Every structure is written in C-alpha cells, then in structure tokens.
Predict the structure.
Amino acid sequence: MDQFLRVVAILLELSVLGIMMLCLFWGLKLLLDDLGINKKYEKAIVMALSTIWFVIVFFFFMHLSSFYPAYSGA
C-alpha cells in the first residue's frame, strides 16, 4: 500500500507540474503570436516548445521517482 501511495503522489505532482509548464509555454506561444513572429514559424515554434516541455516533464519524473520520500502511515 505504501508503494501505491508513493506512485499516486508522484503522478499527481507530475501532472500538476506538467500542467503548470504547459500553461507557461502556451503563454509564451501567445506572446510570440502577439509579436507577429508566430505566423511564419508556427510549426517550428510549436515543435521547439513541445520538445522543451517533454524534456522538463521527463526531468521532473526522474527526480520525483528518485527522491520522493516513502510514505509512512504509522
């Protein structure tokens, strides 16, 4: 049961952090759109932001799975 709660906590925290990063990158995409840069390079910008987002989420996943403390329900 302790291992299950640890996995659930890691997945929940990973989803929250991933959604926060996604919101930041979406705001950056909208900023670039307001500056007029997005029209010509939209595909490259989306691909670059998606790649960075996946790298950051992978980094969070590796660190959370390695260093997240064990649950002690006693």
